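Sync notes, pocket subgroup
Present: LS, DG
LS reminded everyone that the earlier model was apo-only. Rerun requested with adenosine monophosphate included. Inputs:
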Amino acid sequence: MDQTLAHVRGAEHPLLREDTIGQAFDQAVARWPGREALVSVHQDIRWTWAELGKRVDQVAAAFLHLGLEPGDRVGIWAPNCAEWVVTQFATAKAGLILVNINPAYRAHELAFTLNKVGVKALVCAGRFKTSDYPAMLESVATDMSASKDGAIASRLLPHLKTLIKIGGEPRKRFMDFEALYDLATDADRARLAEIGPSLSNRDAINIQFTSGTTGLPKGATLSHRNILNNGLFVGAAIGLTEHDRLCIPVPLYHCFGMVMGNLACVNHGAAMVYPAAGFDPLATLQALESERCTGLYGVPTMFIACLEHAEFERFDLSSMRTGIMAGAPCPIEVMKKVIGRMGARDMTIAYGMTETSPVSWQSAMDDPLERRVSSVGRVQPHLECKVVGPDGETLRRGEAGELCTKGYAVMLGYWDDEAKTAEVLQDGWMRTGDLATIDAEGYGNIVGRLKDMIIRGGENIYPREIEEFLFTHPKIADAQIVGLPDPRFGEELCAWIRLREGHEADEEEIRAFCRERIAHYKVPRWVRFVDAFPMTVTGKIQKFEIRQVMIAELGLSLEKTA
Ligand code: AMP
């Protein structure tokens, strides 16, 4: 390979795993039965691999009892909890495709995702903070009825047959998750044992929604081979072993939690530690200390929140060794503090995207400090990356262009969406939409984004999705969303809105409309009403001008800290 070109290949060893997630999970249970597998601090749960293994088998067989068949989709819509992990591995063992639904999603997004991939059974949280999940589901399926065998029917959610709820008060039409542990018969268990060996590691086993520049979320479909191996290599890069205890405050619905967290632990025998249902800096610091965690994951804003917490100095973090910061540009100063003040001397940076399972680049524990704080490391094993120019030509080292990734980690495609898949996947190359450089020694740097995407506190937001949602408001004629720099979240949303003739609205009215229907992080922080948008002569809206006007008006600093 021409060393002057920005085209690199990762190591070929260790070899890729060719088993299924179910087999890998069983192997972990057999290898480390008495060691702790899972600690869910907020639920006061502490299970060994043997205990977790037993529960996973019970629930996998219960899913079969409920009439689910390999290939069926099972949704999970809940914040971090032990039931999430049980569902993850139970579905994998039964060959059911787990569909991750962001717990921040509201009715509008929920209905779309359930129908898009035909979710047949939904596991949802009972109540969390201000969200009553069963009530939200009922508000979508207003025509819901139950047949004699207990299956539900709704013309609005035509695929959905079974509802399972984690905790909370008993509720009509929802089965309690706890009941799953006692549901299976010997026949279900025998069927589960038959299914295991019949599954292929190339089969789809997980769908994760990513938003798109064209509006509605797309279901990135991932195989056992995709995500099991990503967990393997991500864990290897931070030297995980069965002696490690990994603090996972990142969400499980995202690959950061369920692949880089849970699947890395299954591969390497480390304990999964969940400090809280949702990210909470104090709970994270407490879990690091009380559980003697050796590793911590987070997007930059989470590390910043922990480091800046008023009680930070009070905690004994001497057990800390490693971890991963990823998901958004990782500021050099934050990385330095994590290594210095948190004592995470083997901390690494990773870069990736859901469509590549997710990680494709990661720094190594023995990379010089300067490299670990200022790059995303080197390409991961069994992957190939190149930087291309506007015509698809491979650029030279040091030149900035679009990063493309090829190899085992690239998704199977977007669920039921060949056209969208073809837009990003060509000849096995995934176009990331990120701008990167690769230097002479093969280190990568993410220098910008081609895609119109905003990252707010680690959550990706596609302006187009929110613009289209705003069009559903009867008073709105047109809307433009831009990201503005924010010291806490990295970026914040701003909406410029043109109202229909003769209508009036205020900012709060718009925000309230959003709050009821879409996830909280997509609700614009700044709302302005305008008569027109800045345009080019060809009629293209100039978002950068909207940004400039707002930055000046609000007196914002261009320096993003997260
Ligand atoms: P997701 O699909 O949610 O994992 O988001 C993927 C996107 O997050 C990437 O395409 C990047 O734009 C961004 N991203 C992830 N990791 C990093 C990183 N280490 N540095 C900069 N941007 C990142």
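DG: The chain is about 30% helix and 25% strand.
LS: The chain has a mean pLDDT of 94.
Action: DG to write up.
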